[in-house]
Specification:
This protein has 381 residues and is of the alpha/beta class. The protein folds into two domains: 4-50 and 89-158 and 348-376, Quinone Oxidoreductase, Chain A, domain 1; 165-324, Rossmann fold, CATH 3.40.50.720. The protein has helices at 63-66, 153-156, 159-184, 202-217, 232-239, 255-266, 280-288, 300-316, 329-340, 357-365, and strands spanning 3-10, 21-28, 36-44, 46-47, 57-58, 94-102, 119-122, 132-133, 135-138, 144-146, 193-198, 223-229, 245-248, 270-275, 290-299, 320-324, 349-353, 372-376. The strands form four sheets. Strands 3, 6, 7, 9, 10, 17 and 18 form a seven-stranded mixed β-sheet that branches. A six-stranded parallel β-sheet has the order 13-12-11-14-15-16, with helices on both faces. β17 (349-353), α10 and β18 (372-376) form a beta-alpha-beta unit. The longest helix is centred in the middle third of the chain and has 26 residues, at 159-184. The two termini are 29 Å apart. The model is unreliable at 47-91 (pLDDT under 50). Residues 16-375 form the Enoyl reductase (ER) domain. Pfam families: ADH_zinc_N_2 (PF13602). Keywords: Metal-binding, Oxidoreductase, Zinc.
Length: 381
């Protein structure tokens, strides 16, 4: 380790911490013999616990969990080092940059078409170093996905986790939809399949865009998509998407009212729910909006917590709850092509200099940033 790089560390504040965002200079590993070292240009604000599974959740979908770590930021003022350094809250899995160096054993035969100076994103792997840093060491080139010059770095940085998880959820939903329509073909050929996407954070906004494109491109015109918006600003963002219905889940209403409202907008109980909420209440409501024999898709990050609570209810309602993991590197490459060719439009996003990380995190805690937040480390464009 013969080089230092700057790292933005986002930590859980201790009893005396005034802030939870700090800048450090940390040693960076030498480039692995069969890997690469990436100079980070943009990093998306994303969230993942190290002790959870491999699924990754975009920050805008878990701002409520983030607030658990931030409510006292403005009220305490002792030295920051009394807090707990926990880079895994914001490990910086969503990164876009350029290849700074390739390993000593990389040749034309095994370089996967990659070269120094090439624009790339990184498929998240288990050993990805925690924290937002200027440089990222990747042990194997199979985790490196090239991006075209036409794709802005800030957009590319949103793809490796939230967008990819959303894409995998849509692909699973299509498999379910295909099975349902096949079962109805003989008796109800004109009956449409109804999909409800819960949430208007980064995950849900990606999912509804990917689903709209995917089902249209596959000729599935007998699918109706509805978005259940969890926030007022999300309602506005969702209504801007064509051919998608929107229902607002106003938490001030009673559950029966919200369920009735949802079924009215959807034209009855739905067949598939893609639920990117993180609470028991959200999943409980989703299941009451779901038809008998329906399927709920949830992130496998929250499945560990929610599945034991709802196993009896799912059995009673004859519904399946299926955890969805992050997609594959091959799916990520496909997603890059679709977004670069403007077949799928990215959700709203805002770019901030990495020096403003503290302000960005506070705004995320307060749900003041619509869509996604991106930190920029270098300006190469």
């Amino acid at each position: 380790m013969n080089k230092l790089c700057r790292q933005v560390s986002i930590e859980s504040p201790g009893p005396g911490a005034k802030n939870c965002v700090f800048n450090f200079f940390v040693p960076i590993e030498d480039t692995p013999a069969l890997g690469a070292r990436i100079r980070i240009v943009c990093a998306g604000a994303c969230y993942r616990r190290r002790d959870r599974s491999n699924s990754i959740t975009s920050m805008s979908s878990v701002s409520s969990e983030l607030s658990d770590y931030c409510p006292s930021i403005n009220s305490i003022s002792s030295p920051a080092h009394q807090g707990i350094r926990e880079g895994s809250f914001f490990p910086g899995f969503e990164v876009a940059g350029v290849i700074e160096s390739l390993g000593s054993e990389i040749t034309e035969a095994n370089n996967r078409g990659l070269r120094i100076g090439q624009r790339v994103i990184v498929y998240p792997f288990d050993e990805t170093p925690a924290g937002y840093a200027e440089l990222l060491v990747v042990p194997d080139l199979k985790h490196v996905v090239p991006i075209p010059d036409s794709l802005p770095m800030e957009v590319a940085a949103m793809l490796p986790t939230g967008a990819l998880l959303a894409m995998n959820a849509v692909f699973k939903a299509q498999a379910v939809v295909t099975q349902i329509l096949s079962q109805r073909a003989a008796t109800e050929p004109q009956r449409k399949c109804k999909i409800l996407i819960v949430g208007t954070g980064g995950l849900a906004l990606w999912a509804v865009r990917i689903a709209s494109y995917h089902f249209a491109s596959t000729g599935a015109d007998n699918v109706d998509i509805t978005v259940a918006s969890l926030r007022d600003e999300g309602f506005r963002l969702a209504t801007e998407i064509k051919n998608v219905s929107v229902v607002q889940w106003n938490e001030c209403l009673y559950e029966p009212q919200l369920i009735e409202r949802t079924k009215d907008v959807c034209g009855g109980a739905v067949d598939v729910v893609i639920d990117f909420g993180t609470t028991s209440r959200s999943l409980h409501r989703s299941m009451h909006c779901l038809s008998k024999g329906g399927v709920v898709l949830i992130s496998d990050e929250v499945a560990e917590k929610l599945l034991p609570k709802f196993s009896r209810l799912s059995s009673e309602y004859q519904q399946d709850i299926i955890p969805i993991s992050n997609g594959t590197a091959e799916q990520l490459a496909e997603l890059v092509e679709l977004v670069a060719n403007k077949k799928i439009e990215p959700p709203p996003h805002s770019v901030f200099p990495c020096e403003q990380a503290a302000e960005v995190i506070q705004k995320l805690c307060n749900s003041e940033i619509p869509g996604r937040a991106i930190l920029r480390f270098h300006d190469i464009e």
